[in-house]
Amino acid sequence: MGNTSSRVTAQDKAILDLKTQRDRLHQYQRRITVLTDRETAIARAMLAQNDKKRALLALRRKKYQETLLAKTDAQLAQLEQLTSNVEFALIQKDVVFGLQQGTRVLREIHAEMGGIEHVEKLMGDTADAIAYQREVNEMLAGQISNQDEDEVEDELAALEAEVNGGAKVQQPLPSVPDTQLPERREGLETPEREEPPAQAERREAMLA
Amino acid sequence: MSTTTPFFFPREYSFPPFFTRQTNLTTHHAQLIKWAALVLAYCRHHRLFKLSLSSAISDPLSSTAEPTSDTTASDLFHNRQLNRRLSLADAREVLDFLRRDGRVEPVDGTTGDVVWVYWRTPEEWAGLVEAWVDETAQRGGVLTLYELREGDATRGAEFHGMDADLLQKALGVLVKRGKAQIFGQEDSLGVKFF
């Protein structure tokens, strides 16, 4: 128990106290609810016995207890609000702690980077190095003459044409035959369709 | 969480020899197993956490009413339709059998008349509570024991309305595992889950 007891903080105890209080109110409400139910039953019984006075008394008691119930409701709401406030404050505390931690780490990292001057100097060095590199590039590029450059570009154009041309050859689809079918015009009768070959045969026979 | 549906007794319950101690050793063992299962099922159905042996056995002759107190189980050992009942010694033997199984434990401070009936062992209850705490993301939070048993938040949870002492036992299991800590005064105990 010795090392675990440290895990319960004073805040936890305070929250427990609040919650216990809330539970007490809860129990109290239940008790009152039972009482009001009983008073109603008593009033009903008294009315059945034609004892109006006592019925009224019972109802009055019930009324009083109902006001108590409303009061405890308000108190309960207050307690619950307080409890959730405390819990939220605890979370806020955690958030602040987290922010603090994060800021500290961030600052440490900045310190490792060596301050703004250092970064400025570094950026300047980088710019110098880039400029130097560009110079070197220009010097090397100068060795290729303009003529060579033109030839290279021509070759590129030729290659492009080839690639695009090759793609174009594959593109066209076979053309759709556009000759009209004469039979369709003559109508839907099928026997007529079969006639022409027969006539042709006859003609061939006559020729023979 | 009161159960309104009637408890359906097993087939054996309407079999008269079931209420008489069997002499054959094998039969007797089978009888004990049946009785043990019946006791657990009965208590689970009626959500009985404790069983008082003497009141379960010696019920008033005329009473046909439903069990009222939370430790009576008048129709468990007494089949009124058959007019058969288990004798005190036999009932004790059944509970003894359950005790060896870890399903029954004498309540502290009594002479063995009132016993816990663990249709869920404290370990199982602990698991349920822990699962609930996990599910409702209440790790690191403080809850009162009353809240766990009667609060609106646990309505619908299995352990809602369970016996206070048994709940404390179950939480004791969690404490031992280092998952929880019970603190506060005697009458207003709270528990913090880790």
From TrEMBL, chain A:
Annotated localization: Endosome membrane
Keyword Lyase in record: no
GO biological process: late endosome to vacuole transport via multivesicular body sorting pathway; protein transport; vesicle budding from membrane
Disordered as annotated region, ranges: 164-208
GO (cellular component) term, any one: ESCRT III complex
Pfam family name, one: Snf7
Compositionally biased region (Basic and acidic residues): 181-208
InterPro entries given in the database record: Snf7_fam
Keywords, ordered alphabetically: Endosome, Membrane, Protein transport, Transport
PANTHER family linked: CHARGED MULTIVESICULAR BODY PROTEIN, CHARGED MULTIVESICULAR BODY PROTEIN 6
Recorded family membership: Belongs to the SNF7 family.
Protein name: Vacuolar protein sorting-associated protein 20-like protein
TrEMBL record, chain B:
Gene3D superfamilies: Winged helix' DNA-binding domain. Chain C. Domain 1, Winged helix-like DNA-binding domain superfamily/Winged helix DNA-binding domain
Keywords: Protein transport, Transport
GO cellular component: ESCRT II complex
Molecular function GO labels: protein homodimerization activity; structural molecule activity
BP GO terms, sorted: macroautophagy; protein transport to vacuole involved in ubiquitin-dependent protein catabolic process via the multivesicular body sorting pathway
Keyword Protein transport among record annotations: yes
Pfam families according to UniProt: ESCRT-II
Record-stated family: Belongs to the VPS25 family.
Protein name in the entry: ESCRT-II complex subunit VPS25
Originating organism: Schizothecium vesticola
